[in-house]
Amino acid sequence: MTTIEQKAYAKLNLTLDVLGKRPDGYHDIQSVMQLISLCDDVSLDVGTGEDWKLECDQAGIPTDGTNLAWKAAGLFYQNMGKDPQGITIRLTKRIPAQAGLGGGSADAAAVLLALNRHEGSPFSQEELLKLAEKLGSDVPFLLSGGTKMAKGRGEALSALPTMPQCFYLVVKPDFSVSTPALYQAIDQAPEVYHPQTNAMVQALQKGDLLEVAGYLGNSFEPLVAAEHGEILAIRTVMEDCGALGSAMTGSGSAVFGIFDAFDMAAMASMQLMERYQTFLARNIEEGEV
Ligand code: C5P
Questions:
Q1: What positions does the domain GHMP kinase N-terminal occupy (predicted)?
Q2: Rounded CA separation 18/121 (Å)
Q3: Which pLDDT does position 45 carry in this prediction?
Q4: Where does 114-193 show beta strands of DSSP type E?
Q5: Among 55, 135, 52, 143, residue whose Cα is nearest residue 91
Q6: Residue 179 CA to ligand 1 centre (angstroms)
Q7: Which of 65, 165, 242, 256 has the most CB atoms lying inside 10 A of its own CB?
Q8: Alpha helices in 81-214 (DSSP H)
Q9: Is 148 a catalytic residue?
């Protein structure tokens, strides 16, 4: 039996533009995505000689074959045409669930990366991305990391200039949002907010953090903020503490602020941590995954 370990990093959507519904039921999106240092720890025992098992330190996370990390291991070995002779997956969760941070998808991406390393790279990066796409729209990005443009349903990735160095404060309100329900709601919305993706790309090209922070935006945010005052309340605290910009990530409910000084991010965190889960994070570059 061999034990392998891998960090599973969370993502932020610096911009998320929902363009429209497709015939296959998914939505075309355009999103500037960033990998951040908030992470789960994934540990795998391969070749246990026992039934497959998943253990998680947090209640409420499925510990059977419905967990995306388990599915990722199944898909990996099915495509490799090998029986690993028993796997135990252990998840140490820090990324809050149903937050728009890609937590479950990050665990799945980490399993693919760890198993590919363990098995001597039977799959190229391109082949791994194809497997990732089968597991979920965000999994390919979480596998590759850095700063990327995601198009299609989120799986079509292209390179962007690296996000300037900064500090993120990520705050998770108590409520959670169902991603499919929110996609349905946006189809019914009389108006959809579209962030300025091109301006964001230009700001990244200039490497101008203040400008980047000014173009954060998310098509889902007005829908969620209309129902939950916490979104705006959290953003206001962050901006009062000196955040250069703030927005909701993914389908929520987590909100993030961008700071150029750690002490300001820490001060905002102190103000918000009594009521909410708060996390300080930095960028994770592509080569760090
Ligand atoms: O791809 P994933 O399984 O993460 O997506 C979860 C759900 O979110 C999908 O079943 C779909 O309802 C919705 N979705 C969508 N368009 C996307 C991504 C997700 O409609 N681009």
A1: 67-146
A2: 35
A3: 98
A4: 147-151, 156-159, 167-172
A5: 55
A6: 7
A7: 256
A8: 103-118, 125-135, 139-144, 179-188, 197-206, 209-214
A9: no
Ligand 1 pocket: which of 17, 24, 26 to mutate (most atoms within 8 A of CB): 26
The amino acid sitting at 178 is: S
Tokens of 263: 């002490």
Q: Tell me what the mean pLDDT of segment 281-289 comes to.
A: 93
101 annotated ligand binder: yes
Q: What is the DSSP letter of 118?
A: H
**Average of per-residue pLDDT across 27-45:** 98
Sheet holding 245-248, edge to edge: 245-248, 255-259, 167-172, 277-281
Measured distance between the N- and C-terminal CA atoms of the chain, rounded to whole angstroms: 24
Token representation of residue 152: 């299609």
State yes or no: 106 annotated in a binding site: yes
Any residues with CB less than 8 A from the CB of 186 and at least 6 apart, and which?
Answer: 18, 27, 192, 219, 220, 223
Q: How far is the CA of 154 from the centre of ligand 1 (A)?
A: 9
Q: Which atom of ligand 1 is nearest to the CA of 139?
A: 4
138 annotated active-site: yes
Mean pLDDT of 204-214: 98
Residue 156 near residue 150, CB atoms below 8 Å = yes
Which protein residue has the closest C-alpha to ligand 1 atom 10?
Answer: 180
Cis ω for the linkage preceding 253 (within 30 of 0): yes
Between the CA of 259 and the centroid of ligand 1 the distance, in Å, is: 30
Which two structure tokens, joined as six digits, stand for 117?
């390393």
- pTM for this structure? 0.97
| Backbone phi, psi, residue 24, to 5° | -85, 5
Residue 135 alpha carbon, nearest atom of ligand 1: 3
